[in-house]
Amino acid sequence: MDYNRETVVSFVVVNRNTAALLIRCLNHIFQSRLPQIPQVIVVDNGSTDDSVAQVRNAYPDVEIIEAGRNLGFAAANNRAFRISRGQFLMLVNTDAMLEPECAGRLLDLMKADPQIGMAGPQLLNNDGTPQTSFEAVPTLATETLNRSLLKRLFPGRFPGKRVRLECSTQVEALIGAVMMIRRKAIEEIGEFDENYFFFLEETDLAVRMRKAGWKVVHDPSSKAVHLQGATAKTYRADARIEFYRSRYLFFRKHYGLVAESILRAVIAVNLSLNVIGLGLATAVTFGKSRSVAGNFHVRNELWKWHLHGCPDGKGLPRT
Fold it and tell me: CATH fold of 9-229, please?
């Protein structure tokens, strides 16, 4: 690749044991219609499959950072930021497939408005139906009440996939499967907070960006297919533990200890009720219903984690 010209976009892909998805993701990245050849960086978070070998064989010009262990999403992306050369950083999950015009449209959008710090596309299911691509920042209301009901009753305040925008619009936070970030904004406010291991890193960054005066924008004309949570589905209970750990960190950081304590208490009560209800349902069905038994296992693991004070050491693997 010729990097004599200034690199405009640096793609960053974080991978852990998703070789097939990673290669498919890179195939789509290299089909992107961009004015200049991009820099592409893969951060491998301690994969035990042949992810790295496959990338080197298929795309020898891709720059690979072998972390040797699972750094988590925030720390892995930060590693890539530090060797990236692009004015814009395009973060793409391995389970996302960019349409050819996606990156170019986001790039044009951000070039046209120098106050945009982050921009994200419309995420789609494999069948072309829309996914939630942006959301309201978590609050006690969103985390303790029925989120689906809030989205139905107050779609302007709590947007979901039913809210269809016709043009690029400022939003509170983006879903981080695909997003473009302006280097200047990162240099001003700082990188991802590495206290987040998995979940809410991009939401925390969006909050900090908006507080610093940068815009966070959703662009419905840019599109990418998202297969949703390949890593999380592999470790259901552990992923849910990370989900709540990140939420408690977010509340403590942005709302204070009182709000975090209220959230913890409400979640603990809800989990207790879930465990009782699902435990009875499992007994009645003699454990033959996989969905009921599986949900009981996940809720029970979460309940025990809360019962022990949400200790470190539980959650997604760090090795």
Answer: Spore Coat Polysaccharide Biosynthesis Protein SpsA; Chain A (3.90.550)
